[in-house]
């Protein structure tokens, strides 16, 4: 017999967690498990998960603070991410998305046999690629996550002033400081199209953070060079010649609307 | 027991004490009087003059008829439709003849013309109200069906069943209680929605529902009841309060990271019953991160529609959102079901 599967349970309703624990007990002969931890909302899940060394995460979708789908996307950044089994009472929207992305999910009330089958499958296939989770989520995240020394730090998207690509990392700039994330600027631009605007080949700026534009000294190829001034931080960001018209139009449109 | 239509029976006279019916009669008679004036005088100015002159006779008869019908409503209601119609026409003719004897000079109309106009208007309006009633009956059935679908929120059902299962081994007695509460709730949800219920029973249902939510959400849900001034004998349509409480929990408490508060206040104010359900608002998510939390308007629209079917213009439903709180207020006429 191999070592027991470490299962982490995330659900905001206490009786629902009780139920899952009872079922894990019932199927122990078929699928031996150990409880790796529990949590009652999305943020708490991400706080406790890194230290729990869980193989499988049983994750409720409708939780206060952060939806289960977003929790799964951040958990995927862990060094050893758990396999995720979503649990939902009734969420047609999510169920359709899971079917499309071929993600495993259980419907409440959960049956022991379905749970055993899902656990076996999860143990065999392991964690899901983040891209598939992103596709199932369909909407933009509310947080960026930085995983360092097996700890997940969450940075609210609305606090980010700009994103700048450097080598294989992207720097997130907030008023308080900087963070490095390992994502592609192209994907970020697509996910957060409404919030950030591209001003340069390597830079996206939050529309709401733009204070104005100023002409920089000198010219490039006989045309004036422009820089973006930001709310709350002193640095200026150069606007590339190619992006200048698009940026100016996007900002004017935002100001009008 | 009163029923959902404006008639006490499916196929009777209109309810002459209903504000909506009274308003429709007022407007219709005046439109008919103006149409008659237009028919008699092709010139618009002359027609307006004739209409104003005729008003001296039309309005007193109209007001007197409405007053008489208001008083006679309890006796008219049990009559079969034909007999009731004849009684209404006789009453109107009598009042018209009386008014003509007193005011006929002023309006310059013959007794024959006066009676003919009064009887024709009364018959036309009766027929119109009956047609209207019939036209709306299938809508009643449909609205009831739509109401039923909106009221059983699958999210609530499956989560409650799951909670019972979670409770069953450790606290079997409490699990039993929850199933009893669920059964009671579903009995109310599945009964014919056409009869009025006593407020006392509706409050008991609210408490059953709240007990289930309390079990699921624990201390995240803080409920305050202010029911000391609630007239438990008052009659109201079934399940107009429960969906509002469910909405408050679903939108105010479930998505909140911390504690959410819901306050229920029901009171009688003179001849009106007022119910207020208030909840703290969960901080709105950035962007469209929670698509499943949309569509809040459905339960509300449903209750609004049913109030209109039961009370026509005599009920109010208002919503307001301020200072981090969302508030729904219902105001309906007080009718006692004590007898």
Please characterize this protein's 3D structure.
The complex is a heterodimer of chains A (257) and B (339). Chain A has helices at 14-26, 42-52, 68-75, 92-101, 112-125, 130-137, 185-191, 244-256; strands spanning 5-10, 33-39, 56-60, 83-88, 105-107, 143-148, 151-156, 160-166, 169-174, 178-181, 196-200, 203-206, 210-220, 223-230, 236-239. Chain A is α/β, with parallel strands linked by helices and 257 residues long. In chain A, the strands form 4 sheets. In chain A, strands 2-1-3-4-5 form a 5-stranded parallel β-sheet, with helices on both faces. In chain A, strands 10-9-8-12-11 form a 5-stranded antiparallel β-sheet. In chain A, strands 13-14-15 form a 3-stranded antiparallel β-sheet, covered by helices on one side. In chain A, strand 8 (160-166) and strand 9 (169-174) form a beta hairpin. The longest helix of chain A has 14 residues, at 112-125. The mean pLDDT of chain A is 90. Chain B is of the alpha+beta class. Helices cover 60% and strands 13% of the residues of chain B. Chain B has 9 helices and 7 strands, in the order H-H-H-H-H-H-E-H-E-E-H-E-E-H-E-E. Chain B has helices at 19-40, 44-76, 81-107, 111-151, 154-167, 172-190, 199-217, 242-253, 297-311; strands at residues 197-198, 221-226, 235-236, 260-269, 272-280, 316-322, 325-333. In chain B, the strands form 2 sheets. A 5-stranded mixed β-sheet of chain B has the order 2-4-5-7-6, with helices on one face. In chain B, strands 1-3 form a two-stranded antiparallel sheet. The longest helix of chain B is centred in the middle third of the chain and has 41 residues, at 111-151. The interface between A and B is medium-sized, with 35 and 32 residues.
């Amino acid at each position: 017999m191999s070592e027991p599967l470490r299962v982490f349970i995330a659900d905001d309703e206490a009786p629902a967690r009780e139920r899952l624990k009872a079922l894990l007990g019932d199927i122990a002969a078929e699928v031996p498990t150990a409880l790796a931890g529990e949590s009652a909302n999305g943020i708490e899940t991400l706080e406790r998960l890194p230290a729990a060394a869980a193989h499988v995460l049983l994750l409720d979708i409708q939780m206060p603070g952060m939806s289960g789908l977003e929790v799964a996307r951040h958990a995927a950044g862990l060094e050893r991410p758990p396999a995720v089994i979503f649990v939902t009472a009734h969420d047609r929207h999510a169920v359709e998305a899971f079917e499309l992305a071929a993600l495993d999910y259980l419907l409440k009330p959960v049956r022991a046999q379905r749970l055993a089958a899902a656990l076996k499958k999860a143990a065999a296939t392991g964690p899901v690629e983040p891209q598939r989770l992103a596709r199932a989520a369909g909407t933009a995240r509310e947080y960026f996550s930085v995983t360092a020394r097996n700890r997940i730090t969450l940075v609210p998207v609305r606090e980010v002033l700009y994103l700048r690509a450097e080598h294989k990392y992207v720097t997130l700039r907030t008023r308080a400081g900087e963070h490095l994330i390992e994502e592609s600027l192209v994907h970020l631009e697509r996910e957060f199209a409404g919030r950030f605007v591209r001003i340069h080949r390597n830079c996206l700026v939050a529309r709401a953070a733009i204070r104005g534009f100023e002409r920089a000294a000198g010219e490039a190829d006989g045309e004036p060079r422009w820089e973006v001034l930001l709310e709350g931080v002193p640095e200026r960001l150069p606007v590339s010649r190619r992006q200048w018209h698009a940026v100016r139009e996007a900002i004017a449109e935002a100001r009008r609307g | 027991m009163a029923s959902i239509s404006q008639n006490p029976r499916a196929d009777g006279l209109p309810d002459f004490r209903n504000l909506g019916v009274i308003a429709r009669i007022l407007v219709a008679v005046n439109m008919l009087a103006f149409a008659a004036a237009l028919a008699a005088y092709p010139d618009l100015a002359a027609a307006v003059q004739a209409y104003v002159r005729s008003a001296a006779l039309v309005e007193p008869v109209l007001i007197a008829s409405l007053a008489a019908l208001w008083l006679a409503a309890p006796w008219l209601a049990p009559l079969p439709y034909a007999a009731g119609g004849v009684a209404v026409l006789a009453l109107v003719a009598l009042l018209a003849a009386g008014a003509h004897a007193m005011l006929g000079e002023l309006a310059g109309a013959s007794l024959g013309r006066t009676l003919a106009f009064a009887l024709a208007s009364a018959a036309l309006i009766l027929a119109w109200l009956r047609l209207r009633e019939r036209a709306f009956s299938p809508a009643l059935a449909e609205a009831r069906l739509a109401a039923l679908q909106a009221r059983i929120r699958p999210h609530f059902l499956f989560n409650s069943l799951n909670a019972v299962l979670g409770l069953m081994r450790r606290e079997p007695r409490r699990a039993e209680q929850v199933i009893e509460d669920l059964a009671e709730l579903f009995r109310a949800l599945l009964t014919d929605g056409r009869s009025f219920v006593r407020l006392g029973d509706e409050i008991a249902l609210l408490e059953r529902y709240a007990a289930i939510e309390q079990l699921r959400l624990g201390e995240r849900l803080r409920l305050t009841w202010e029911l000391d001034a609630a007239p438990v004998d008052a009659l109201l349509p079934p399940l107009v309060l429960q969906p509002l409480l469910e909405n408050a929990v679903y939108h105010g408490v479930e998505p909140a990271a911390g504690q959410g508060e819901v306050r229920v206040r029901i009171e009688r104010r003179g001849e009106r019953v007022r119910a207020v359900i208030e909840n703290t608002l969960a901080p709105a998510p950035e962007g469209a991160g929670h698509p499943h939390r949309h569509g809040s308007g459905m339960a509300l629209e449903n209750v609004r529609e049913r109030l209109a079917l039961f009370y026509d213009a005599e009920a109010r439903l208002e919503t307001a959102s301020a200072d981090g709180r969302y508030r729904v207020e219902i105001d309906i006429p007080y009718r006692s079901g004590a007898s």
